[in-house]
Amino acid sequence: MFAAGLKLNEPGIFALDIPKPRIERPDEVLIKIIATGIDGTDKSLYRHHLVDAPAQEDFLVLGHESYGVVEEVGKEVKDIKPGDCVVPTVRRGCGICAACRNHQSDYCYTGLYKERGIHKLHGFLTEYVVEHAHHLVTIPQDLGSISVWIEPMSIIMKAMEQMLMIQQRVPFFCPHNQHGWSMDDWGGCKKGIVIGAGPLGFLATAVLALHGMELYNVEIVPEDNIKVQFIKELGASFIDGNAFTAQQVAQGIDRIDLIFEASGASKLAIDFIPVMSRNAIYLMTGVPRVSGRNEEFDADLLLRQIVRQNQVIIGSVNGNREHFKKAVAMVQEIEARYNHILSRAISHRFPLKDFSKAFDLKDPNQLKIVLEVS
């Protein structure tokens, strides 16, 4: 069976010939993969030759943003049947800590989790996979290729969940009761900055816009880039991160209730901490590569501000099955509200056999790359 992935002792990305999996346990499901998205994590693993292969293996099949059609189910599987479309989750819990035993492996205490296509488990850049039913979320048949947005959207759903829970700590100053942080229209009368216009920044902007927040997106690309075009289509204002400092950006906005960082650019992320307004929250989802680079900032002033102004900075990673289920609904809502924007934001499509072209793509106007298997 065809697959694409990394080899332990040889840089590059390779076509792999692996056995077709089969159901061996009664709670397992055989899935025919339809398509798999590529994101920054996949490209980073490839470019830096980070091969965290499964035990006793010398290769790692990549891919963690995927969807497919069920072909066969084990005898104990009740809620999934052949012909269903499904999206697999990514993280598999350690089985030890309270979080993982409670199906919340995104909060794993031990760090001994595994992740499909990333960390000690093969991924979905292949033709068939077998997965436990609990790690699958059924999706509507007509979602099609926008299903590859569900996995990254699950990350946004988790981050938003934390934000709304934490921000209920503060009263809001506008006169509209429906704009409280615990209300459906919580984005009203609030201003936010999203740092980054890649896949996560794009999705974060879409979700925040959907809830009525006044948005500004900071990115270091030319204004005619496709990423900026989509950001503007969502109603956000574009700010060139090369042309303006964080202080200049803040002066132009006046009040910043939320910052959502989705760039993985350490300096840019740190520069925006001092411009948060009182009672604001800063969500960090970008994961920079460790480089040993040092950045200078006034630590005393920064800590003084965070304490005296009741500010919150939170890191958020991954999403569990409940976040995936929420992501399905959110993807549908955004696609309907913004004229099929998620379909149009799939900038490049390749057949699986052309995986190397997809991973080596240098087009500055790429947003979401999809490898189509079937």
Automatic annotation (TrEMBL):
Keyword Oxidoreductase set for record: yes
Cofactor field: Zn(2+)
PROSITE patterns: ADH_ZINC
Database matches in InterPro entries: ADH-like_N, ADH_Zn_CS, Glu_dehyd_C, GroES-like_sf, NAD(P)-bd_dom_sf
Residue stretches making up the Glucose dehydrogenase C-terminal domain: 146-372
PANTHER family cross-referenced by the UniProt entry: GLUCOSE 1-DEHYDROGENASE (PTHR43189:SF2), ZINC-TYPE ALCOHOL DEHYDROGENASE-LIKE PROTEIN C1198.01-RELATED (PTHR43189)
Protein name (record): Alcohol dehydrogenase
Organism: Candidatus Uhrbacteria bacterium RIFCSPLOWO2_02_FULL_49_11
